[in-house]
Specification:
Blueprint (H helix, E strand, L loop, with lengths): L6 E6 L15 H10 L4 E7 L22 H11 L6 E4 L4 H6 L29 H15 L6 E4 L9 H9 L7 H23 L8 E3 L18 E4 L10 H9 L6 E6 L14 H13 L3 E7 L8 H17 L7 E2 L3 E4 L2 H4 L5 H12 L4 E4 L10 E4 L7 H12 L3 E5 L17 E6 L5 E5 L12 E3 L4 E5 L3 E2 L1 E4 L28 E3 L3 E4 L3 H8 L2 H15 L5 E3 L6 E7 L4 E7 L3 E5 L15 E5 L5 E8 L7 E5 L3 E2 L3 E3 L2 E9 L2 E7 L1
Helix pairs in contact: 1-2, 1-9, 4-6, 8-9, 11-13
């Protein structure tokens, strides 16, 4: 497995031909000094940018018209001299110069529409045109000019259902109907697979061991067939760029099961890529880097180099604050394996979509409940887990049914909700569940009066559930509560007040869910509802049920607030387990709808911000580790932790938690 360095920078350099003086302020000693101050040990530098310009002499492409020397060679030599790796960036999906010179190479929609020439942005090129031949020539040239490069990073890797003349011809020759969306998507996938094979071969023509990464944002759950073209993974997840702080933990929870080393990629920007003069607070960067290593990955911080070639001093001071801490901690974060006993069986892995509400909602509830988890697809092994979450929409075919039955027979436990467990047609449950099913409720929304042991702490009356439930009647086990129907659904014939009708005073006779020793089932799509509405009472209702279902098998119990995060890893070579405790207070700011002219990233969305890092005092922790523990220490401090063993659990107190604390359990 290719092994990544921990402290990386992705240095964007998309530079207009209308800007003069390219690289004129590059200074080798200053470059080295700022990288060293920032504790950086790998920096991705540019060969070819989205504008289509090369930053070195080239016979295949065109060097930036205002660059007078080999900037990439100077950057690489300066970095290598101080033992900093330099992977090389090559744009693939965008190349503005070529999209203008060869408009016939652009992607076109099925209506025959091309890009808007007044948009002032980059245009997606089609990988089924002669452009791919030129791209492979460019990659081969870069690999030959820079054999000492520490990898090739290829960007904007996607292929839309293009209807350019080349794709139309290709679809017809393949026996596909361009008028059918499914056939257009099928052909686009074929084109993309050809791209992966050819560009990877080009990057490795001279060096079969050249690391290669193809960037399309982050890894799609279930799309593992392409991984043979990757040496490692880089998970793009800029919290302030619209991803939010709970996006990365989900991506990492899946990627750590794929057998490749991976890194998280955030940015120093206040918003997202392409922002000059925008900075997040240094405390945000400290938390984001801590969250990366706490999720089993390496770190990368996105920056954008000024056209004059000088690294921004403020940026590298900020990065240095975060990376100084990472450097102290990385010995406990390398070659780790997740100890999570719970896994989310991803809906996205079944549907092929990205970031579906059931997955996101399930992950958020587990994060807020401090339950360590992985994310898996249906092709992965289930047997290493004790609890499997099927959120809301996991339909079950014959192969999955067999795996689930084997999982249950071997002592595993299932957590399901709403339509999870139905056959692929959505007609009947094919998993044996402890209730009689009468189909989907005709009412939406309806209401739940939770059973006393699951009731949110401040609730005594029915609470609203915004999406329809399955009409179930529990057969044995424990009912989670009663469903109350509204008087009617809102419509033009009947409505009440400003939203939905109130609940009837008598329960409907249907259960809100049921729990046995093997199965926990919620009748509503609780995870999608939580993703959409974020109700605190719903979270508490679900978490109360989860904690009772887990019982003594709950891996971690803490006194931390729901905004804190917990992960648990094993380092078998070092004979130790490591618990990560994370906390930062996030707040949404901006989003006032101030759309600025010619600014693609105007603040039309709220930005999740971290400013202050507030300490937590006297944090109580109880953890179940699958080893006989010899000692417990706070690391990297090396401070011994007083602890007690109670019923197989290690119990201790963290006197003060500021941002991130690791706890080592040596065995």
């Amino acid at each position: 497995m290719y092994h990544l360095r921990f402290r990386q920078v992705h240095l964007d350099f998309h530079t207009s031909p209308d800007i003069p003086g390219i690289g004129e302020k590059f200074d080798r000693r200053q470059w080295q000094e700022r990288l060293k101050r920032a504790h950086v040990n790998s920096i991705t530098c540019f060969s070819i940018c989205h504008h289509g310009w090369s930053y070195h002499p080239t016979k295949v492409g065109k060097m930036h018209p205002h660059l007078k020397f080999n900037l990439l060679r100077e950057q690489m030599d300066a970095a290598h001299e101080i033992d900093v790796n330099v992977p090389v960036y090559i744009t693939a999906g965008f190349n503005h110069r070529l999209s203008v010179e060869h408009p016939e190479w652009n992607e076109y929609s099925f209506e025959g529409k091309g890009p808007n020439p007044l948009r002032g942005g980059f245009i997606k090129l089609c990988f089924n045109t002669p452009y791919l031949d030129l791209l492979c020539e460019e990659i081969e040239e870069v690999a030959a000019l820079f054999p000492d490069a520490n990898g090739i990073f290829l960007d904007i890797i996607n292929q839309g259902p293009c209807c350019c003349p080349h794709c139309m011809k290709g679809m017809l020759e393949a026996g596909l109907d361009p008028e059918l969306e499914a056939d257009r998507l099928k052909f686009a996938r074929k084109v993309l697979e050809n791209y992966y094979a050819r560009t990877t071969a080009a990057a490795r023509k001279l060096n079969p061991e050249m690391p290669v990464f193809h960037n399309s944002g982050h890894v799609s759950v279930g799309d593992t067939g392409i991984l043979k073209y990757f040496s490692h993974l880089e998970l793009e997840s800029l919290p302030t760029g619209g991803w939010g702080y709970d996006h990365y933990p989900f991506s990492a929870a899946y990627s750590r099961n794929l057998g490749l080393d991976f890194l998280g990629m955030t940015g120093k920007f206040h918003t997202t890529w392409g922002e000059f003069g925008g900075f997040k607070h240094p405390n945000a960067l400290r938390y984001e880097c801590a969250a990366m290593i706490a999720n089993g990955s390496k770190c990368s911080v996105g920056d954008q180099l000024h056209p004059d070639g000088e690294l921004d001093e403020t940026t590298y001071d900020m990065i240095g604050e975060a990376y100084a801490e990472v450097e102290q901690k990385e010995a406990w974060c390398d070659n780790v394996k997740s100890l999570a006993e719970t896994a989310i069986l991803s809906v996205a892995g079944i549907t092929g979509k990205r970031e579906v509400p059931p997955d996101v909602g399930a992950a958020r509830i587990l994060l807020e409940a401090h339950i360590p988890f992985d994310v898996i697809d249906s092709g992965m092994a289930f047997d290493r887990y004790r609890f499997l979450v099927l959120p809301d929409e996991v339909t079950v075919d014959a192969a999955l049914r067999e795996k689930l039955e084997r999982f249950l027979a071997n002592g595993g436990k299932l957590i399901l909700s709403a339509g999870s467990g139905l056959d692929p047609e959505g007609k009947k449950f094919v998993v044996d569940l402890p209730f009689a099913d009468e189909g989907w409720s005709p009412f939406s929304p309806d209401y739940v009066l939770a059973a006393p042991e699951f009731t949110p702490s401040y609730m005594k009356t029915p609470f609203v559930m915004y999406l329809p439930s399955r009409r179930i009647r529990a057969r044995g086990g424990v009912s989670l509560g009663q469903v109350f129907d509204p008087y009617f659904n809102r419509g033009f014939r009947q409505f009440c007040s400003h939203q939905h009708a109130p609940y009837r005073t008598e329960p409907s006779g249907f259960d809100a869910g049921v729990m046995t020793d093997k199965v926990l089932y919620f009748a509503h799509p609780v995870f999608s509802i939580y993703r959409g509405f974020g109700m605190v009472y719903l979270q508490e209702f679900v978490v109360n049920a989860l904690r009772r279902f887990f019982g003594a098998d709950l891996q971690v119990r803490t006194s931390m607030p729901t905004t804190a995060r917990v992960t648990l890893f094993d380092q078998p070579e070092e004979k130790r387990a490591v618990l990560h405790l994370l906390y930062a207070n996030t707040i949404n700011r901006g989003g006032g709808g101030l759309h600025l002219p010619n600014q693609p990233h105007s603040n039309g969305y709220a930005i999740e911000v971290i400013e202050e890092l507030l300490p937590l005092e006297d944090v109580k922790v109880s953890v179940k580790v699958p080893h006989a523990v010899r000692s417990v220490r706070f690391v990297p401090q090396g401070e011994a932790v007083p602890y007690e063993m109670k019923e197989g659990r290690i119990e201790f107190t963290v006197p003060r938690l500021l941002c991130h604390q690791m706890v080592e359990f040596a065995y």
